[in-house]
Amino acid sequence: ICNSISRPTGEGCRTVPLAGHVGFDSLPDQLVNKSVSQGFCFNILCVGETGLGKSTLMDTLFNTKFEGEPATHTQPGVQLRSNTYDLQESNVGLKLTIVSTVGFGDQINKEDSYKPIVEFIDAQFEAYLQEELKIRRVLHTYHDSRIHACLYFIAPTGHSLKSLDLVTMKKLDSKVNIIPIIAKSDAISKSELTKFKIKITSELVSNGVQIYQFPTDDESVAEINGTMNAHLPFAVIGSTEELKIGNKMMKARQYPWGTVQVENEAHCDFVKLREMLIRVNMEDLREQTHSRHYELYRRCKLEEMGFKDTDPDSKPFSLQETYEAKRNEFLGELQKKEEEMRQMFVQRVKEKEAELKEAEKELHEKFDRLKKLHQDEKKKLEDKKKSLDDEVNAFKQRKTAAELLQSQGSQAGGSQTLKRDKEKKK
Amino acid sequence: MSKGLPETRTDAAMSELVPEPRPKPAVPMKPVGINPNLLGYIGIDTIIEQMRKKTMKTGFDFNIMVVGQSGLGKSTLVNTLFKSQVSRKASSWNREEKIPKTVEIKAIGHVIEEGGVKMKLTVIDTPGFGDQINNERCWEPIEKYINEQYEKFLKEEVNIARKKRIPDTRVHCCLYFISPTGHSLRPLDLEFMKHLSKVVNIIPVIAKADTMTLEEKSEFKQRVRKELEVNGIEFYPQKEFDEDLEDKTENDKIRQESMPFAVVGSDKEYQVNGKRVLGRKTPWGIIEVENLNHCEFALLRDFVIRTHLQDLKEVTHNIHYETYRAKRLNDNGGLPPGEGLLGTVLPPVPATPCPTAE
């Protein structure tokens, strides 16, 4: 018996003026401090052919020498190599994961090259989804491994995109934020570069590839993001070598005909990439990954598993019901398997039993045989003994009879009869 | 956790009149424009600024519930806390609206803005609590309401196509008003807090503290603390959720010395020493609400709003809500399909409290 009166959100919710300083304007700070103490994580995926300078670019972007051997061109298939690093700047700790393709574009048949990449991205979503669906979960300390940004390295041919690039980007654009970049762009001249960029952008548009657009809804960054959107794809150069130019140490690449400075905006777009990727839009990249790409994956996956949302007119399904159904199905399967195993077990036992029974029978037979043999032997021996006894008895009888006769004879005749008997006996 | 928080917070506890502290930003802000001369600097710490901007844009929700017998000054206190008329005082109701026969739950939302931060504040009042002759189980409607909010959120979260921002109506904080008898806690207080401390963050406050002298106040507080401990009632900030040593020392101090806060509320201003202050006028003097020598209102306000607001929300989301969710998902394994599950008929949220993990 409880009345609940509540004014629903958004409808008629009055804005009430404050008569003084309350202090909840420190809320963003409270939130940010919590996040700082927990640390952030950011995951970048670098997709590109071997030798396009992926590792060098990452080193340059984050001012660190990440370990790793350069890959060879002889990989049998496309693999992904993932490494996690802990970076610290001021009081902000960042768990950075860099995933790189190994052997991309090296195979003769590249039809399936995109598959390992898609599978990897999906696997990260799946891991997060599994954690979210658990009954006892720890989402707030979960290490988020979902890819927040995918840097797609385009080879500096100067002509157009390769078909492998188009196919791969088309497969990835609904799963991850793609930022296309032109690698090793010191191989292209300025004029060629502008034409190249235009060609790439038009090809992407005509093929319906959705690349990541820097957000322009927040006034403070709308302007800069808008300009940057027009500079895509960024033409970058990476270098970890520092050379002395003028009186400063700068990251640069030295050629006989001059020195290319990485952080010089007239030379390449590296600074723009760093600005956009890290300093302005890192949070937005993470948010888009979670609220758009992950939600899409989750929706598809759950629908695939058979869940449905509530329908306004028909009887609604519920997640729990489907869970129940799935669970019963699963239990049924388990039971079936158990039955099968039990059957097999019973079968085996029967067989073994039969075997053992056979053996037992044999043993019994053997025993009987031996027993009979033994009895026969015994009987034979007894017979022999009996016959021997008979003989002995007969001998004794004769002896007694002889002695009797002798004693009678000695009374009547003397030793002659005895002699005669003796001879007779002989 | 106190990195970057205003150091004036602890100073405020010392001074008489609480100055208005402006929190220092966590990190010195980096200009958004391109600065090519910084070689070694990557720019990772700009994420703080990016995050702050994002949260300012989306705004915040905060839902606070006040529980206590009639006449303890609940509405006045909430109005004083948020310096606006967010709660309608019972005394201003029509005479026909007498004390309700059962506990009612009234939730009213307002939007308040300060320093660019927009907050949707919902005050949930519970008229009728503890006012009947037989108050057995009068906490049940409140517990039911809290669980209903968790249920709503869970339902939304479990949808296939779900909203970008799930509306949060869960109760983040429950202020429980203790009557300033000076003796000890009443059985009703203990029962309520025992049941509810497992599902929501409870902050006990001693109401109308202007009826106690300083000695009586400190004795009463000690006794209350003792009784809460003896009865195993974990009020916010709960010991088990202290994240690191810093949190622990800070929270220990609050738990063992300041709480429960003895407060006085007022929405009237008077002139004291040439300044306009919120206070209560009595024949023997003016009680200044924001004066730490007079009462602990400023401590409560700083605690709830200026330092622990986000933490209240996080404990609600990460711990209380998760406990509810785990229990709910576990339980449904036992129910036959089609009955009382999410999505179909809105399941009867159990009137008896959900026994928690313990």
From TrEMBL, chain A:
Residues 320-398 form a coiled coil. Its main location: other. InterPro entries: G_SEPTIN_dom, P-loop_NTPase, Septin. One of its GO terms (molecular function) is GTP binding. Residues 404-426 are annotated as: Disordered. It is found in: Cell projection; Cytoplasm, Cytoskeleton. Residues 38-304 form the Septin-type G domain. Keywords: Cell projection, Coiled coil, Cytoplasm, Cytoskeleton, GTP-binding, Nucleotide-binding. Gene3D superfamilies: P-loop containing nucleotide triphosphate hydrolases (3.40.50.300). Belongs to the TRAFAC class TrmE-Era-EngA-EngB-Septin-like GTPase superfamily. Septin GTPase family. This is Septin. It comes from Capra hircus (Goat). The lineage of its organism: Eukaryota, Metazoa, Chordata, Craniata, Vertebrata.
From TrEMBL, chain B:
Septins polymerize into heterooligomeric protein complexes that form filaments, and can associate with cellular membranes, actin filaments and microtubules. GTPase activity is required for filament formation. It comes from Capra hircus (Goat). Filament-forming cytoskeletal GTPase. May play a role in cytokinesis. Belongs to the TRAFAC class TrmE-Era-EngA-EngB-Septin-like GTPase superfamily. Septin GTPase family. One of its GO terms (molecular function) is GTP binding. Residues 1-29 are annotated as: Disordered. Residues 58-331 form the Septin-type G domain. Its main location: cytoplasm. One of its GO terms (cellular component) is cytoskeleton. Transmembrane segments: none annotated. Gene3D superfamilies: P-loop containing nucleotide triphosphate hydrolases. This is Septin. The keyword Ribonucleoprotein does not apply. InterPro entries: G_SEPTIN_dom (IPR030379), P-loop_NTPase (IPR027417), Septin (IPR016491), Septin3 (IPR008114).
